[in-house]
Amino acid sequence: MIEAVGLTKRYGDKTAVYNLSFQVRPGAVTGFLGPNGSGKSTTMRMILGLDNPSAGRVTIGGYPYRKLPNAPRQVGALLDAKAVHGGRSARNHLLSLAQLSGIPARRVDEVLGVVGLHDVARRRSKGFSLGMGQRLGIAAALLGDPQVLLFDEPVNGLDPEGILWVRNLMKSLAAEGRTVFVSSHLMSEMALTADHLIVIGRGQLMADMSVKDFISANSADFARVRTPDTEPQQREKLSAAITEAGGHVLPEQDGALRVTGLPLPRISDIAHDGDVRLWELSPHQASLEEAYMRMTQGAVDYRSTIDQKEGLQQQLPPGAQPPMPVPGQGQPGWYAPPPPQQGGQPFAPPQSPPGQAPAGPYGASGVPGAAPGAPAANPYAQPAPQAPQTPAPAAPPAAAPPAAAPSAPAADLTKPEDAR
Ligand SMILES: Nc1ncnc2c1ncn2[C@@H]1O[C@H](COP(=O)(O)OP(=O)(O)OP(=O)(O)O)[C@@H](O)[C@H]1O
Fold first, then answer.
1. Which PANTHER family does this entry report, sorted A to Z (predicted)?
2. Smallest CA separation from ligand 1 atom 16, residue
3. Phi and psi (nearest 5°) for 18?
């Protein structure tokens, strides 16, 4: 587990991180989100002992990184994929990291296979694409078979197949009981990958909750209602009736109505009572991106003067406040379905397919959503055909086989080999 208590970092007058307290628990993927310059990299650097806190502390398994016994084998990280000696081959780069930590050479070949770089293992990394560099950085992070993994923007530069692979890798690692802390600006990806979120803005903690609770707390669900396009008077009539019943109506660009404040069955009844035909009556749940934009809009430092995120933010009706989440239960939404005994659930949440991959080499029971028939010897190398929507189940921590290396932060890899 990673634990930060009152973590603060100042660079001269600039306070990059202020009074951050959070825990990153094993058995889950924890997403680390925040606008540009909010302090994510600074926090990760302090976790890895690359920067000293100005105040507070951060520990891994109870120890500051620098006091961790055999730290490189307990913690792996990808901070900057470009921090590689470009004149070395991928294999030699990993071999040098392995040697620093007493990791056997065969582990290098294993991780090259895991990240899909075995065919280019003897090529100099300076010729690598952005995505190949990311894969090499991930290989370095995995080298020590660590229980705690930090990834700063791991999908940066990866193609869709690579993104899917990283998603499944993160979930697999967490399912094996490891602590996985990953920063990303890709909200759609985080929605699929993370179980839990820590969100910071201008160096301060803004949220520490499950993805589900985060979306619920920072958005308002709404209903989309559509009347026949050919009869605009029906739309007007329905709009007036909904408003009179206490609902809030906003026009959508395509002619539909966005309704908040009333449950779907009530909207249906109002339409029926007014003799208004409906072409559509559908629930809409906000995306993580919408919720994130809503929460962080006041904490963004760098913003285009011509793009004020119009259209990306879900507007609340005048005077309305987003509903508060129920701790541990998420948010019921503004149009709660009736209980089953009163007519069943009008809109069931999508169910994810119950795919289970074979057991992994580190003792995981299976990777939800991983490809059926994926080779058991290497669960990370095979992208799954579909994206699992449900959080990976936590597995008991696997015994950590001794192996592996610190990842990039252990050595200054930006310097030529001779200079180190
Ligand atoms: N070595 C440094 N000296 C001075 N200021 C720094 C230093 N490192 C970071 N900062 C400042 O601290 C703040 C936080 O930077 P940091 O890189 O941690 O943000 P971030 O959330 O990782 O940003 P991004 O999403 O753009 O990567 C920024 O204002 C940055 O300019």
1. ABC TRANSPORTER, ATP-BINDING PROTEIN
2. 39
3. -130, 115
Residues with CB under 6 A from ligand 1: 11, 14, 16, 34, 36-42
Q: How far is the CA of 304 from the centre of ligand 1 (A)?
A: 19
ipTM for the assembly: 0.97
Give the model's pLDDT for residue 290.
Answer: 81
Angle between the 160-175 and 130-142 helix axes, to the nearest 10 degrees? 10
pLDDT at residue number 302 = 64
Among 101, 349, 301, 325, smallest CA distance to 203 is for 301
Range of the domain at 406: 2-216+401-419
Ligand 1 atom 7: the closest Cα is on which residue?
Answer: 11
Total domains present in the chain = 2
CA-nearest residue, atom 29 of ligand 1: 37
Residues of the chain with pLDDT under 50: 308-420
Q: How far is the CA of 182 from the centre of ligand 1 (A)?
A: 17
Instruction: Give me ligand 1 centre to Cα 38, in Å.
Output: 7
**What spacing in Å lies between the alpha carbon of 36 and ligand 1's midpoint?**
8
Asked if residue 329 is part of any domain, the answer here is no
Percentage helix, strand, coil, to 5, in the chain? 30, 20, 50
